[in-house]
Amino acid sequence: MDNGSENYRRYCDGDENGLVEIIKEYKDGLIFYISSIVGNICTAEDIAEETFILIGLKKPKDKGKGSFKTWLYTIGRNTAVDYIRKNAKYPKVSLENIEISESAENSLENTFLKHEQKITVHQAMRKLKSEHRQVLWLTYFEQLSNKETAMVMKKSVHSIENLLSRARKSLKSELEKENFDYEKL
Predict the structure, then answer these.
(1) Which of 7, 27, 95, 113 is 20 to 30 Å from 101 by CA-CA measure?
(2) What CA dihedral angle connects 141, 144, 15 and 52, to 10 degrees?
């Protein structure tokens, strides 16, 4: 049983700190994953909050088919898809001013270059199809296995492998348009 499952079990048994620990551990990753679906970090924060409220109030049963993280991200994805369906008639908001955290580098120049690389990669990812953003995010940023990614995205492992291959090619193409040296990543 992973830590998330243990914390959720504690919460379901009445220990409020179990949910607090879940939120601390999974909040940031869930927000960034949902952002890859909805294309807006502020909306993603709201949807992640709805996801935590859902598991906090309704206490859905974890069927144990995968890791707790996979289960939580599946709920987050479903909440995001519901949001998109309900708000399809509203225009999308641009993410031009996304704030990306900088790593603590010794050299100001290295810090600046790393920051610019992150911006370029995130901008290139925003130009990809939603499925491509999702599969890249889950695989590389959240480090889920192909099987876990398939469970979250409700696809077969083979479909995920194919989708991941196409997504990498699309991202590479977008990065090449920006003359980005992705070999140094």
Answers:
(1) 7
(2) 60
